[in-house]
């Protein structure tokens, strides 16, 4: 068994990773290991009893990546005395520089110390894992597209709803203005009718007054003539 003085350099780490039959290419350690799936596959090869690969789904979202790491941490790493802190999980899921290299180095050292050998799966199992991961990737992509489409549709719906609300407010304001104008017009019509009736009444009264004055004037003239006639006759 290897002692506690085991040290791994980057070159040896890369050579070790390159020799592992992953279900998908591992070209960029920081990016490709960020969802914990490939780390689970490494652990499955050396500690197969502890790992159930189907529990870890390829992911693009940070939240799903964190959930994968939390499950791997709880079900596997904690049992291997390699429990991760919350900060480490955060850095791994976010692809922080050097985080995955540090974890893989610790894992490689543990493998050497434990003296365990790689349990290479049969070709059929590898193909099955590859197909399964491809199917999960396709499903994840479809799901992501659906979520994005749903988000776009919700955004458009919210914008249209806001636009409709604004138009309804404008229509409501215009309706209030129309009601006010109609009320004002009715009041003006009533005022005009009242003034017209008053003018007509005044005209009638003036006409009657004029006629009365004419009659009175005629009576005065008749009386005056009658009086003059009697005076002339008396003389």
TrEMBL record:
InterPro entries found in the cross-reference section: CH_2, CH_dom, CH_dom_sf, Spermatogenesis_Ciliary_MAP
Pfam families noted in UniProt: CH_2
GO biological-process terms attached to the record: regulation of cytoskeleton organization
Coiled-coil positions: 147-177
GO cellular component: axoneme
Keywords carried by this UniProt record: Cell projection, Cilium, Coiled coil, Flagellum
Keyword Magnesium: no
SUPFAM superfamilies attached to this UniProt entry: Calponin-homology domain, CH-domain (SSF47576)
Source organism superkingdom: Eukaryota
Domain Calponin-homology (CH) residue range list: 7-112
Molecular functions (GO terms): microtubule binding
PANTHER family xrefs: SPERM FLAGELLAR PROTEIN 1 ISOFORM X1, SPERMATOGENESIS-ASSOCIATED 4-RELATED
Name of the protein in question: Sperm flagellar protein 1
Organism, scientific name: Mycetomoellerius zeteki
